[in-house]
Every structure is written in structure tokens, then in C-alpha cells.
Amino acid sequence: MIIDYSTLRPPMTVLKAAGVTAVGRYIGWDGEPGYSNIRKNLTTTEARELLAAGMEIFLAFEYAADAALKGAVQGTADAHLATRQLHDLGAPAGVTVYFALDFDIGDFAPGSSDPRAKLGPAAHYFDAINATKPAYKVGVYGGYPAVSRVLDAKLAGMAWQTIAWSGGRWDGRAVLRQLVTQVLGAADVDLHEGRSPDFGQWPRPRVTPTAFRQVADGTLSLRQFEAERYQIANPDDPAVIRGVILAANLTMEHGTLADRKALIDYVISPGSAQAMPAGLVFYTLNK
Predict the structure, then answer these.
(1) Quick check: 62 pLDDT over 80?
(2) What is the domain count for the chain?
(3) Single pTM value for the model
């Protein structure tokens, strides 16, 4: 069972008896100097107790529900605070921090199809978070319009979607779905559905990547193929080159001897910028 809770914490005995496997908790400005303290944030002691009981932890950053509408200045401050608080808690690098859009965000650009424009100042908020280049993965929490626009704009790498403000719609990219509320040990908890073995939790899961077999149709170069997958316009972009190298490594690992030889011959001549021969087999991490 995956749950989250806020200020009231169910006793550890109740969590264990209920079969809880992962708990969503908070970091943010609660209790920081100059801010009120409703004891919402995860504490070091609480984190140790949860981990010792074999439960995973995932984290939302939230103080004011609509703080993202303050834009870039707030985003920079929140990003740095998240870094410090994760360090103080002892959280590992690579965990996801889900920055909350915990309100019905509305549409800032009804006449536009641009997800950034529709997010308004919240886009600048996430820009600023990403600009700090944090050791954690940037995630988003919110209803369907919020998470879908943030993901479409490539402002976050993971999404935790709530049933609220979603109108019955679910974004298939969200790794967590927050569903219904129930009482557990006198505390209100939200029940969740996990949609991926990795939802940014602590401890970090050991996920074995799946390699997918691809067959060239004779029209695209390997660089063009990777550029389309990553939605990058320039096939010479460094991210595309890394994708080409990864495809080569995966083919060496998963391909047959003939597959490996054919790909090596292609990369040597005519090269990854030229069209792949039809029927060339190679492997990627996703379809």
C-alpha cells in the first residue's frame, strides 16, 4: 500500500499492520525561520523509523499551495531549500522532489497550444528550479492540467497526479496517482497507485533497464532516429550523440554476433549521420 499524509502521522505499528510499503511526506518552508510551523515536514527521526521498517519515502515540496505562481524568484529559493533539506535528512542523490501545484491552475493562454504559455508564471518557477541543476530529479505534483502541461513543456522528469482538478482524466506518464482519502490510525491518509517501479523514492530502487529491439527501415540515420525519439531538432546535439553511444552499447550487450558486426560496420562507414541500411538491428532503452 502506498500512502501519503500531512501533519497527523499514523503510528508505526498501524502502518506496518496495514501493509504500507511507501509513504509520501513533505519538505518545504514549514518551520523555517520566519515561517509558521504546523509540523508538516518529514523529520530525520521519522525518516529513519520509516526506512528501518522497510518503507520507502517519496517527497513533495509544498508550503503555499500556489507558490509556483510567484515565478522564478520563488523557484530558485525553493530549489535551494530542497537541496539543503534533503542533505539534512540524509536523502540520496537521484530522489525526486515533486514541487506542488496544489490548486486548480487554470489556463493562462486559452488561445495557445503552448504548454509553457498555459502554465503562466509556473513555467518560470520550474525553469528556475531546473537552472540550479539539483542533484535530485525535478518532479511535479498536481491535477491533470498541471502535470500534463509541465511534462509537455519538459519542465519536470516525473509526475505525481492527484484525482483533484483532473476531471476524471489521467496522464499516462504520471508515475503516481493519488486516489482517495481514508482514516488510518486517526490520521487522514491518501491512497495511491504506483505506475512505475521507480517513482523517485528513497531508498533508490534497483531497476533493470529494458532494451528494445529496433529494425531500421532504410530512411533514417541513427542520429536522426535518436533525435526523433528525444524530440531534439539538431541531430548533432550532444544528447543525441549520447543516445547513439547508448544504442551501440546496448546492441553490443543484447544483439546477436551478426547484429553487433553490422552496427559496427555501419558506424565506421558510412557513419551514424548517414541513413542506416534497411534491416539493420539495434537496441534502445525504450520504444
Answers:
(1) yes
(2) 2
(3) 0.74
